[in-house]
Amino acid sequence: MRFRTVILLTILAHIAFTSSRMTVSLYALKLEASPFTIGVLMSLYALLPMLLSVSAGRLIDRIGPRLPLLWGNGMLFAGVILPFIFPGLPTLFVAATLIGSGFMLAHMISNNLVGEYGKPEDRAANFSWLSLGFSTSGSLGPLVAGFSIDWVGEVKAFAIMAAFAAVALAVSFWRRGDLVRHATPKQRPAGHSVMDLVRDRKLRSVLIVSGLLSMGWDLFTFVMPIHCAQIGLTATTTGIIMGAFGAATFVVRLGMPALSRRVREWQVITTAFVISGTAYLMFPFVTNATLMMGIAFLLGLGLGCSQPMVMSLLYAASPAGRQGEVVGLRTTVLNASSTALPLVFGAVGSALGMAPVFGAISLCLAAGGYAASRKAKRARAR
After folding, report:
1. What is the SS3 string spanning 17-62?
2. According to DSSP H, which parts of the chain are helical?
């Protein structure tokens, strides 16, 4: 029951999170915000998580997941409901900060609990099931946002999304007995700092690859609403295109529990880089909604297969008693890119248009694919 509770909470919180990001972008565009301003809003989703993730991971290691999860879902709900109560561009800056920080806690706790569940040889399969939960919500979130915006408008759409966060908060309270560690945690070693983790070559490699793949994932949610609005697509169509990405992650992850027992992690990660880099290279040349859905689906297949493998490698490389801290460090790395890159690409998009943004993302993913292929060769040689 505990495993299913974690998956359910993940789906509910992630629907609120993903739908809010699309709605914040489209609402800001309606308020005549520039791509750079939208980049600032997307960066605020990641700013506090970037600064606080390691400390949050240590807190989870020390006191367990129950209270941090309640805090996280409470902040998520407050952030999503705020633009409904106080409409306007200034409110979006506060809302983005609250939503990003609240979901950071919920996301870290989900990964930590799943990593502790079951036997080590089942870890990749367990993370695949968690990833299926994320894929489900990743598909539903943009659809909820798109249909809600076209049905009742951006402001009232926030109230619909807040309902998912409210249910997540209620379930995390009522089912708090399920949210316990599967095993007794080992004491965190004394006298160790986060730099010890950074100096670990094996762990550092996984963190870098994780950051590059997350960049590809996060920038999709940033660039697509802007690109679709610029070529005249409706919110519903934009939601369907983004939902195709989420549907692809669900499809590919259905086979990941079985695939994870047959294919090595670095081989899958290399393939993910190749597919996602190719998809990003194609986007600027397509304006047809159906073709864009197909490319988004291809991108989802590439990025969707990587997450379970990355988390399996990361948890295996974590020192005893510091799993929450390692998840926090990974979250810091991901949110550092999520804070900086929307600002950079938002400025580029404002000055030069979105085509150079797509090209730059593709080049970054190609570089990651080259590095991952070298790791895959070393793994096969062992």
Report:
1. HHHHHHHHHHHHHHCCCCHHHHHHHHHHHHHHHHHHHHHHHHHHHH
2. 2-30, 35-63, 66-85, 89-116, 123-152, 154-174, 194-199, 201-230, 235-254, 256-259, 265-282, 289-304, 306-317, 323-352, 355-381
Q: Which residues contact 85 (CB under 8 A, 6 or more apart)?
A: none
Calpha distance 346→57 (Å, rounded): 30
Select the highest-mean-pLDDT range: 2-16, 166-180, 314-328.
Answer: 2-16
pLDDT for 220-255, tens place per residue? 887 888 888 888 899 899 989 988 988 888 888 787
Residues 6+ away with beta carbon under 8 Å from 73: 9, 13, 102, 106, 165, 168, 169, 172
Spell out the domains of the chain, with CATH numbers in brackets: 2-180+193-381 (1.20.1250.20)
Q: What angle do CA 219, 220, 224 make, to 5 degrees?
A: 115
Predicted TM-score of the model (pTM):
0.69
Q: Could you tell me if 91 and 82 are in contact, meaning their C-beta atoms sit under 8 angstroms apart?
A: yes
Exposure on the CB side of residue 205, measured as CA atoms within 13 A: 17
d(Cα 342, Cα 353) in Å, to the nearest integer? 14
pLDDT tens-digit readout, 180-191: 554 544 455 555
**Lowest-confidence region among 56-70, 141-155, 288-302:** 56-70
Per-residue pLDDT tens digits for 337-360: 777 777 777 787 777 777 888 888
Q: How far apart are CA 123 and CA 102, in angstroms?
A: 26
pLDDT score recorded for residue 382: 57
How far is the C-alpha of 85 from the C-alpha of 99, rounded, in Å? 15
CB 64 within 8 Å of CB 177: no
Spatial distance between the Cα atoms of 222 and 108, rounded to a whole number of angstroms: 22
Q: What is the DSSP letter of 186?
A: P
Six-digit token pair at 179?
């949210």
Alpha-carbon span 236 to 193, nearest angstrom = 47
Cβ 336 vs Cβ 45: under 8 Å: no
Range with the poorest average pLDDT among 113-122, 154-163, 167-176, 246-255: 113-122
